[in-house]
Design goal:
Pfam families: Sigma70_r2, Sigma70_r4_2. This protein is mostly helical. The protein has helices at residues 3-11, 15-36, 40-57, 67-84, 111-119, 123-134, 139-146, 150-179. Helix content is 70%, strand content 0%. It is elongated.
Length: 180
């Protein structure tokens, strides 16, 4: 069965087609959930909620763009839902923002370590960092998705980068002291 046929069957609430769509996309969407969740269990809950929404709204998918892109947007919005109402964001004056760059040498630092330290960021910094730096949304889009100002998005990104830079520098210092 083609993807278009699966989508059409899902629009008719066909459980077998829904299962196939789930099997095709669950692992990618779960990785996305992990990025935006505090822990594994919350990521599992977010994935479940995302698929419920996906299958409820599948009739709104008009085959414009990819199904995967449409499902990713729903999944990110589902994962962000729990943060919108609890006020995890600080409002910061844009004049206080400084641009921070983080130098990473792939030979010294593993992807696993980077993912681990990103996961350790406080919610407000992790969410903005993931949306902006990893998923390519603009500060305007991040602000709209999280119900914050673009200035808050920029300041939270700068703070996330600063924390990551400090952790990477500490990690490098530990590596260097071990090799001496």
């Amino acid at each position: 069965m083609s993807l278009e046929q699966l989508i059409e069957q899902c629009k008719k609430n066909d459980a077998k087609a829904q299962s196939q769509i789930y099997k095709l996309h669950a692992s990618k969407l779960f990785s996305l959930c992990l990025k935006y969740s505090r822990n594994y269990a919350e990521a599992e809950d977010n994935l479940q909620d995302a698929f419920i929404t996906i299958f409820k709204k599948i009739t709104q998918f008009k085959n414009k763009g990819s199904l995967e892109g449409w499902m990713k947007r729903i999944t990110i919005n589902t994962a962000l839902q729990c943060y919108r109402s609890v006020g995890v964001f600080d409002i910061i004056n844009e004049d206080q923002i400084e641009d921070i760059t983080v130098e990473i040498n792939e030979d010294e630092i593993s992807i696993d370590f980077l993912l681990e330290i990103i996961q350790e960021l406080p919610d407000r910094y992790r969410l903005v960092f993931n949306l902006y730096a990893l998923d390519g949304y603009s500060h305007k889009e991040v602000a709209e998705m999280l119900n914050i100002s673009t200035g808050t998005s920029k300041s939270n990104l700068a703070r996330a980068r600063l924390i990551l830079k400090e952790k990477i520098e500490k990690y490098k210092a530990n590596l260097n002291s071990q090799t001496l």
